[in-house]
Amino acid sequence: MPPSSFPTRQLYYDGKLWPASSGKTFESIDPSNATPLAEIQVAAHADIDAAIAAADRAFSSWSQTPPIARARILQKAVALLRERNDEIARVETLDSGKAFTETSTVDVVTGADTLEYYANLVGGGGLNGETTQLREDAWVYTKKAPLGVCAAIGAWNYPIQIALWKSAPCLAAGNTLVYKPSEFTPLHAQTLAEIYREAGLPAGVFNVVYGAGDVGAYLTAHPTIAKVSFTGQVTTGMKVAGSAAGNMKYVTMELGGKSPLIILPDAELDNAVDGAMMANFYSTGQVCTNGTRVFVPASMKAAFEQRLLEKMQYIRPGPLFDDATNFGPLSSAIHAEKVASYIRHGIETDKATLLFGGLGKPSVPKELEAGFWVRPTVFTNCTDDMKIVKEEIFGPVMSILSYETVEEAVERANTTELGLAAGVFTKNLNLAHRIIDQLQAGITWINTWGESPADMAVGGWKNSGVGVENGRRGIEAWVKNKSTLVDTNGAIATVFAKL
Description:
Shape: globular
Low-confidence stretches: none
Strand order of the largest sheet: 14-15-16-13-12-18-19
CATH superfamily of the largest domain: Aldehyde Dehydrogenase, Chain A, domain 1
Radius of gyration: 24 Å
Mean pLDDT: 96
Number of helices: 15
Oligomer: single chain
CATH topology of the largest domain: Aldehyde Dehydrogenase, Chain A, domain 1
Number of domains: 2
């Protein structure tokens, strides 16, 4: 069993720990039982300035380090992450409230995969430019250059994974980074900084500051910052993107979603139910890509709901380090109240039919009753105008919507300002591809849900974001392009010649 508390977290920059000058702290809380885990020191403006200055000093050398040398350092960090997978995952479980069966098999693993992917990419020439012969005596060549000092704002649902999704391409491309984790799940940041240092990352290349939105706002608006990468809710992301764009900074925004999952009439029932459950209840529903609007053919609705009810019994809340537990609490008290308010609204105002769950907490051992638990909840007979159908809840709340024709389902699926993810379950793959082409979302799945391997570029459409993370395209968000035309003709074409 892991320890119940951790040393005070200080800031990390210029390759070592520093006490914050603000004199302020906040607590990291174990969501499963509402007990404190650690005191976290809040960065003052002067501390953020110091962290950015350290990153700025380190940029000149790191950006000039050959890509293959950068790759070797990052590959050492990958090995350390994998070696310490369970140790890191235990801290992630305590900090985030996710079951250890999840954090030990997904969070650190997928983060390390992404770091390895980008280390291999740049080490194998992935930052090489292109050469084009314009004519016999003229060539164009391109080069990719790092952006400079970058800022990354992490999210609380996948703490170390998102930290690696951002730092991996950033550092591989030759940038330096100042990272602010979410104030709700901050414990991973120092661990990652120490792993990077042990792997040989030079001082100042990766830095950590702590705090809430005001710290993030000062960091991202700082004139030295060249690029901002943010993961979080849509309203905050719009503010961050607006501030960054107004100062000509590069941005990547991975924001929220209200994603449709369309089940076609020929879909295998068990697969459809399993997919819908994974798209709603994995990570206690705290996944931005979750398929919370489940479109079911009217002819299939009764059978789908019956099988769903049978399988809901397999959701097992409980002690987070128990191998049988597959459902944890929500991340914080404030978020638990938010999700509960949506469930209450669905029952009392939207008047949706409560098929399973509802208000209150699931049955958990007495020592966990103070935790931020909610019941996995399913609403049916939903309509498109209901608040629980229109707004992102970010919790374990499924809305079932019936439809008559596929064309109707696609049209309704697209009636949202968000466009993060979408998916289709069917045996007819030709039809699936045609439907996917019509769905207005940046991340789509056919007969599966949720997997985002390092090789797969992911990003939202509409209000769900700007740019992509991961995949070959992901590195492009961390570099700028330079094109050069070389003319070897020996003469200059000119209109300013004697007639």
